[in-house]
Design brief:
Strand order of the largest sheet: 2-1-3-4
CATH class of the domain at 317-419: Alpha Beta
Largest sheet: 4 strands, parallel
Number of strands: 8
Helix content: 40-55%
Number of helices: 24
Strand content: 5-15%
Shape: globular
Length: 431
C-alpha cells in the first residue's frame, strides 16, 4: 500500500510503525475471509482491510477520529485472526492499537460511552473493586434485569457477573516441588487481575500442576494492562505494565527465573508484547524486552517435561476451544491439544474454530449484540461435537461461554491437573 505521510509526522515513533505496517498491506482481502465482524455484518468497513483504509486516511491526513471511523474501529474484536491469514505479514495488532490510542486522544465520545469505559478501566483490573462490584450486582433483582429497563451494556455486565466463581482463591505464597523430585527451576506465576476473582480455580490448578512437575512456583501480583490497552488508554496501560515489571524485578533480584508463567492467554499475548510496547521507555525498555522473552503460556512450560500423570477415572470427551489470543496472538494452537491427548482425553474439534467467541476483553460489554451472536454461534458448534466438557486457555472465553450454556467450561490446566492427581474440576459429573 502506498502512503503519503507528512515527514514531520513520521518523527513520531508510533506513527512511523503504523506507516510501516500499512505499507505491507497489498489489498488482497484474505483477512476478510476470517474476520468475525465481516462474517456477521457483511460491511467492508467492518473488515480488517476496510479498517486499514480508515486508519490510513485518518493518520495520513492527521485528522481527528470521526464518529463514523470510531464506529467501525470499535467493532473490531482484536481477535488477530487476520494476522494468521495475512500472506504479507501485516502486523494489524500494532496498527489497531495505535489507532485506538489516536481515537482516545482526538475524539470525544458520548458521555454514556465515556462513563462505561471509565467504569471498566477503573473496576475490572482491580481485584478488590471487582469483588465489591460483583457483590453489588448480586443485589439487583433478576426481575429488573429481565424487564429490559437497564441499558444494554449494563445488562451485559450483569449477565457476566451472574456467572459465579467455582473454586478457592490461591494463597499468595511460593510453592516448592516435592523433595523427592529433581528441581527444574523457579518460575513466576502472574496472578493478574480479574482472573483471580472470576476463576480462582485456574491459579490453584496451575500451581499444583507445576509443583508436581518439579517447578518452584512464586505467585506475582500485578495486572498486565491488557484491558486498558485495548481501550486505547495508553498511560494507564503503561502504568500497569510498569508496576508489573517492578514486581518482577524484585522477584528476580531474589533468584533466577526460568520462566514467567501466564495462564490467561489474553494476558500472555500482552506480556509477550511488552518489549514492543515499552521500547521507547528508557527506564523500562531493557527489562520489558527481557521479561517478554521469558513469558510463557502455562502449556509451553508444561511441554518442557513429561506430565506427572496419575491414575484417574474414565476421562470425559473434550471439545477444545482455542482462544484467539492463544491461536492468533501467540500462535499456540496445537500444543494445548497435544497435552490434553497426552493426558488421556479424547478431543473433538469445534467447527469454525478460528472464529472468536465474542469475549475479546471487554468487547462483550461494549459490543454485546455482536458478542452474543458470536457466542451463540460458537456454542451451537460446540453442541454438535457431543463433548461433555469444553476446555480453553483464557478466562474471558470461559466467562463468555459459561454465560450461555450449562455445559462445563473449564481451563485446560484444570483438566491436566485432574489427570495428574488433582481434584475433579467443578461442574464435571462424577465418572
Amino acid at each position: 500500500m502506498q502512503t503519503q505521510f507528512n515527514p514531520l509526522a513520521l518523527k513520531d515513533p508510533d506513527t512511523a510503525v503504523a506507516e510501516s505496517v500499512l505499507r505491507k498491506c497489498v489489498h488482497c482481502g484474505f483477512c476478510n475471509a476470517t474476520c468475525p465482524t465481516y462474517l456477521l455484518l457483511g460491511d467492508e468497513l467492518d473488515s480488517p482491510r476496510g479498517r486499514i483504509y480508515l486508519i490510513k486516511d485518518m493518520l495520513e491526513q492527521e485528522r481527528p477520529a470521526s464518529a463514523a471511523v470510531v464506529l467501525h474501529l470499535d467493532r473490531c474484536l482484536s481477535c488477530l485472526g487476520c494476522m494468521t491469514t495475512c500472506p504479507s505479514g501485516v502486523h494489524y495488532q500494532h496498527l489497531i492499537d495505535h489507532a485506538r490510542e489516536h481515537v482516545e486522544r482526538t475524539y470525544r465520545r458520548p458521555w454514556s460511552d465515556r462513563l462505561l469505559r471509565t467504569l471498566i478501566a477503573k473496576v475490572l483490573p482491580f481485584p478488590r473493586r471487582l469483588r465489591l462490584a460483583l457483590k453489588l450486582a448480586a443485589l439487583i433483582p433478576p426481575g429488573l434485569r429481565r424487564l429490559g429497563l437497564l441499558p444494554v451494556p449494563l445488562r451485559a455486565m450483569l449477565a457476566l457477573a451472574g456467572v459465579p466463581p467455582v473454586g478457592p482463591r490461591l494463597e499468595h505464597r511460593a510453592a516448592v516441588a516435592p523433595a523427592s523430585m529433581m528441581p527444574r527451576g523457579r518460575v513466576a506465576l502472574i496472578l493478574g487481575c480479574a482472573q483471580g476473582v472470576l476463576t480462582p480455580e485456574t491459579h490453584a490448578a496451575t500451581q499444583r500442576l507445576l509443583t508436581r512437575a518439579g517447578w518452584e512456583v512464586v505467585p506475582v501480583s500485578g495486572c498486565c494492562g491488557a484491558l486498558t490497552h485495548h481501550l486505547g488508554r495508553r498511560a494507564e496501560a503503561h502504568g500497569f505494565a510498569a508496576r508489573l515489571i517492578e514486581n518482577l524485578r524484585g522477584l528476580e533480584a531474589r533468584g533466577e527465573l526460568a520462566a514467567i508463567v501466564v495462564n490467561a492467554s489474553g494476558c500472555g499475548t500482552q506480556l509477550k508484547d511488552f518489549g514492543f510496547m515499552l521500547r521507547n521507555d528508557p527506564r523500562l525498555a531493557a527489562d520489558a524486552a527481557r521479561f517478554s522473552a521469558l513469558s510463557c503460556d502455562i502449556t509451553e512450560v508444561l511441554a518442557r517435561s513429561p506430565l506427572p500423570l496419575g491414575p484417574v477415572p474414565p476421562l470425559p470427551v473434550v471439545a477444545y476451544h482455542s482462544a484467539c489470543s492463544m491461536q492468533h496472538g501467540q500462535k499456540l494452537d496445537a500444543l494445548p491439544r497435544q497435552l490434553l491427548r497426552q493426558a488421556g482425553f479424547e478431543l473433538r474439534e469445534i467447527a469454525e474454530g478460528h472464529l472468536c467467541c465474542g469475549s475479546a476483553g471487554s468487547y462483550n460489554i461494549l459490543q454485546s449484540g455482536i458478542a452474543t451472536q458470536l457466542r451463540d454461534r460458537k456454542l451451537a458448534h460446540i453442541g454438535r461435537t457431543g463433548a461433555s466438557v469444553v476446555a480453553t486457555g483464557n478466562v474471558g472465553c470461559i466467562m463468555q461461554l459459561r454465560s450461555g450454556t450449562t455445559v462445563p467450561i473449564v481451563h485446560t490446566v484444570e483438566l491436566l491437573d485432574w489427570a495428574c492427581g488433582g481434584p475433579r474440576p467443578a461442574g464435571l459429573a462424577a465418572g
